[in-house]
Write a structure and sequence with these properties.
Helix content is about 0%, strand content about 45%. It is mainly β. It has one domain: Sandwich (Jelly Rolls).
């Protein structure tokens, strides 16, 4: 299985990049590119709860959910340096995504849902923004869907690397149950997807995905990530760096055997940088 999936480009279409139970165990991920003759996309969520994130033109979302009809208008996104609204839809929804004016790019992430959850849009006032790290590994983490949404498994947000900056540092992972260190969170097995955007869009970054020593199925990959690329993270540490001059944004989506933001472990070989 390839973990690095190149951008499908901006031609109108629906691009399923990961299916739950196939490429990943807990997550699905699809890119929807509207424009030209494809002005809308209608689909059913089935047993999956969904998070929708937005990157270009204005979009209208209409959904028939188990609790009734629901809709939202999402404006055009001015910049990847600031977070987009994110939409949460429960399992059992019939969804229509419609481009309001021109092209529109939307990602749809899914995980096994639960009965009774409610659709909602998480906008600026509900997004938790946090400056994380220091020196050249300072970044802004925007958390959209966590304890504020009654989801079954999904935890979602965006991270913005400043030009030349690093994120997911110290390298961390969340692929096994591990008791917490003093004052910390336990580690919980969760998969993750990163979906990348860059400004200007011809930029690039780098990402390493690697397992801890002693992993029974070890791997160590390094990827040059470009605008519109996706990286699947079934397990392992996963730091990211942006090329100087280019702002790098990635949507991140988590799901697994628990639902606790921050339930990860730093690579002990590099955790010292927190106190350097």
């Amino acid at each position: 299985m390839s973990l690095h999936l190149k951008s499908p480009g901006d031609a109108p279409g629906v691009y399923p990049l990961a299916k739950r139970g196939q490429e990943l165990k807990y997550l699905s991920f699809t890119v929807v590119e509207l424009g030209g003759g494809l002005r809308e996309h209608t689909f059913e969520s089935g047993e999956e709860e969904l998070s929708l994130d937005f990157y270009t033109g204005p979009v209208r979302i209409d959904a028939e959910t188990p609790s009734g009809r629901w809709s939202a208008e999402v404006p055009a996104r001015p910049s990847i340096a600031e977070p987009s609204p994110m939409v949460y839809l429960p399992a059992g929804s019939r969804v229509r995504i419609r481009a309001a004016n021109g092209a529109a790019r939307v990602t749809v992430a899914g995980a096994l849902g639960k009965p009774g959850a409610a659709a909602q849009i998480v906008q600026a006032g509900g997004i938790v923004a946090k400056q994380v790290g220091k020196d050249n590994w300072t970044r802004t983490v925007f958390t959209h869907i966590a304890g504020n949404v009654d989801a079954a498994r999904l935890i979602c947000g965006e991270t913005v690397n400043r030009p030349g900056g690093w994120s997911s540092c110290p390298p961390h992972k969340h692929d096994r149950f591990r008791e917490p260190e003093a004052g910390g969170q336990p580690e919980v097995p969760m998969e993750e997807v990163y979906y990348f955007q860059l400004d200007p869009p011809q930029g690039f970054g780098f990402m390493r995905v690697y397992t801890e020593p002693g992993d029974p199925e070890p791997f160590d990959y390094a990827f040059a990530v470009e605008h519109g690329d996706t990286v699947l993270i079934p397990r392992g540490y996963h730091p990211v760096a942006a090329c100087p001059g280019y702002t790098l944004n990635y949507t991140w989506v988590l799901a697994g055997q628990g639902r606790t933001y921050g339930a990860w472990s730093d690579d002990p070989r590099h955790a010292w940088i927190k106190n350097a």
